[in-house]
Amino acid sequence: MNSRKLTAIALILSMMLAVFAGCNSTPEETVPETEAVTETETETETETETETETETETEPETEPETEPETEPETEPETEPEPEEPQRIYHYLNGKTITEEEQKKRPVAIMVNNIYNCLPQAGISLGDMYYECAAEGGITRLMMLTTEYEDIPLVGSIRSSRDYFVDFLANHEAIYVHAGGSSMAYEKISWRKINNMDGVNMYIPGMFWRDEWRLANMGLEHSLMTDGGKIAAGIEYLGYETTLPDTYVCPFKFYDENTDNHISGSPATHVHMLSTSAQTVDFVYDESTGEYWRYQYNGMKHVDANNDQQISVKNVIILFTDINVIPGDSYGRLSVETVGEGEGYYITNGVRKVIEWSRSGKTTPVQLKYRSGEELILNCGKTFICVVDNSVASKINFEYSW
Fold it and tell me: Per residue in 212-231, pLDDT tens?
């Protein structure tokens, strides 16, 4: 064999060895493939961790959501609700009291106010008063109080009129009177008014005739009672002494720390001819912030028990139609208590026009200013004068004696 053939055989053998060696070794290129798989798994894990971290970061955002739940509990401290709805106040004078005291039913006592019966006993112990005409130009009073047990003597007690029964709807009061007109008795009956009648009802020991008054003033001006007898009479008759849950007081009051000065016209001395026989004066006293009451041409309206003159924080005058009942032999009156009308609210030496409305004789009165704003009274006693519309133009608000 020549050298050319040997060279060719050697080249072929060399090539065969190279192929054989490639089939039995691991290529370095497979490592990057393995690393690529590892990187892919790492990226997947990283994405998973990122998602987990994102969920963790959102947890603090849920914590502020729990804070608003606690904020309403702290809001009343920083932004308290108005005090008036929360305050428990006396329905007759506005003073802050307990819930139990607020629920106590008042009594409404009909008190004679003819000149010949003066002075009346116990009159200064009322918290709210109504005055309205009766027949012959005289007026009659209805005084309301919840502290009736403390009255040492009250009277003389007089008869009811039907429009005073209408006024009772404002208070759910127990009614103390001595007789009444036929119309008054009809209303007392069909409305089932809890009443204590000194003429036509038997209540052991509740009423008696005062001997001095009987001798000096006459029979009709001598009927008396006292707080202890009233309380015993209520117990004897089994009347409820707590206001019903359905009762809504028509009178709103500021608290004791608020002395509201309304914007209006002066009313330093209110002089009013309320009937043909009755002249009423309310004189403002700056030192006390209250009005002293006078009647019958400047006579001080005093209590026979203590010689104390009636003094009130609020005066309300309501105008309505008052007429003699046609054909009534006693000249009794009809007083319109349903519908609407105007009047005055007087306090702190100032007066302002108000409007009254009443949808029915068994519903409470509503009082508001012409603007529609609800009337809120200053804390203290209130005297309400119900007079004929003709009286409105004759009132002098800056009268001098």
Answer: 999 999 999 999 999 999 99
Q: What is the 3-state secondary structure (H, E, C) of 54-100?
A: HHHHHHHHHHHHHHHHHHHHHHHHHCCCCHHHHCCECCCCCCECCHH
Alpha carbons 374 and 351: distance in angstroms, whole number: 16
Chain center to CA of 297: 36
- Phi first, then psi: give them for residue 18, nearest 5 degrees: -65, -40
Question: Between 189 and 32, whose confidence is greater?
Answer: 189
Residues 6+ apart with CB under 8 A from 322: 132, 133, 333, 334, 335, 336, 387, 388
**Which residues is 130 bridged to in the sheet?**
142, 384
Please say whether the beta carbons of 94 and 379 come within 8 A.
yes
Predicted confidence (pLDDT) at residue 49 exceeds the cutoff of 80: no
Q: Which of 84-93, 142-151, 201-210, 337-346 has the lowest mean pLDDT?
A: 84-93
d(CA 121, CA 143): 12
125 CB contacts (<8 Å, ≥6 apart)?
A: 143, 145, 147, 150, 151, 154, 303
Rounded Cα–Cα distance for residues 61 and 371 (Å): 49
Q: What are the CA-CA distances from residue 103 to residues 89, 107, 174, 362 (Å)?
A: 10, 13, 13, 20
CA distances from 165 to 59, 124, 155, 188, 351 (A): 68, 22, 19, 7, 28
Burial class (CB in 10 A: 0-12, 13-18, 19+), 309: middle
Residue indicated by tokens 């060696």? 21
Q: Which residues pair with 345 in a beta bridge?
A: 316, 352
pLDDT in tens, 240-256: 999 999 999 999 999 99
Please state the length of the chain.
401
The pair of structure tokens assigned to 303 is 């209590």
* pLDDT over 90 percentage in the chain: 76
- Report pLDDT digits (tens) over 260-285: 999 999 999 999 999 999 999 999 99
Number of neighbouring beta carbons within 10 Å of residue 348: 19
The helices-and-strands tally (H runs, E runs) of the chain is 8, 23
- Residues β-bridged to residue 155: 121, 224
